[in-house]
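job 3f2a | input accepted
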Amino acid sequence: MDTNKTKAGVALERRSKTQAGKYTAILFSSLLLSTAATAVFAQAHDHGAMPAQDMQVTHDHSVVVSEVQQDSSVDDDHSQHAGNSASDAQATVTDHSQHADHSADSVQAAEADHSQHENQSASDAQHAEIEVHDHNADAPTPMNMGGDTSQQRDPHAYSNGLQRGSGPYAVDGPGLHLADEMNFGGFRMNRLEQLYQDGADATVYDIQAWFGNSYDQLVVKAEGDFSDDRLEESDTDILWSHAIYSFWNTQVGVRHQSGEGPDRNWLAFGVQGIAPYWFEVDATAYLGSGGRSSLNIEADYELLITQRLVLQPRVEANFYGEDDRARGLGSGLSDSSVGLRLKYQINRQLVPYIGVEQARMYGDTAKFSVGPKSASQTRWLAGLRFWF
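job 3f2a | predicted structure (388 res):
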């Protein structure tokens, strides 16, 4: 009986040791699992995802735990269970050592990557600093918006503080002037032509002269005709011309009219310039004593056949506000002329030409002058245009 008790005690002691080993293996496995989970969580937090190898290790841990729990239910072979638990624990430790090595490698690679990122960030920051510095260097200095003008450059001064009209380089006399500041003059014979018509020939002149600058000029216009060695009609305008647009001038002045009949004086208001498509236009209105009024319109266009051969159509018309029997003029449209001139430009300043013109008188002007049969005339002409 004592022998049986002794055997029972030994078995109980062996069972107690076996259970103690089992609990120790379970506790050790739980501790390893907790350590592996902490490492995996830290690695997932740093890199966003756990590698596939770590997932496999976690799966191995779960298998070990299942086997340990299964072994705890087996009571018949404790020694074998203890041996299996020991070998499983050793395998688990081996797996964890591999996992630890892998984690260490991952941490090293991550640290290397982070160090590279930090170096790249530092380099980018340095470049940005350089760019900011360059931009600040190129930025213009703010304008002086206050009342202190001592540091501001005189906009009318030349370089080195030189000014026009003073200093060692100043020119004696009027000095240097731009083209629109200088006064200049010109003379242009628009028409000097001989007319050949039924009954009598005539010589016609049309002159324009001016003196001034590009904006304001004194203009003299003279137009008339001679027939049978006597002056039949003469109109002379003295005008002040002022530029209002690139191609247009306003003109204000006086007109003196002489020839057959009494002389007349008029106030003149007109415009002269180039209309679109290069039509030259001259329109002037006149006011005279006794409520008299008149309007003269001239227009011409130069059509280039070649660089030297030019065809010029020309039209002119005169209107009067009331009859002037003393000068043989009726109210309304008094007379008109329409002609063609073929010009040959020897140069820009000397242009001979030939042409034909149709002249006509209307209304009371035709009655007062020479009668209805002579109201319309066809005239051949030859002339010269020049200017200087």
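job 3f2a | The mean pLDDT is 73.
job 3f2a | closed
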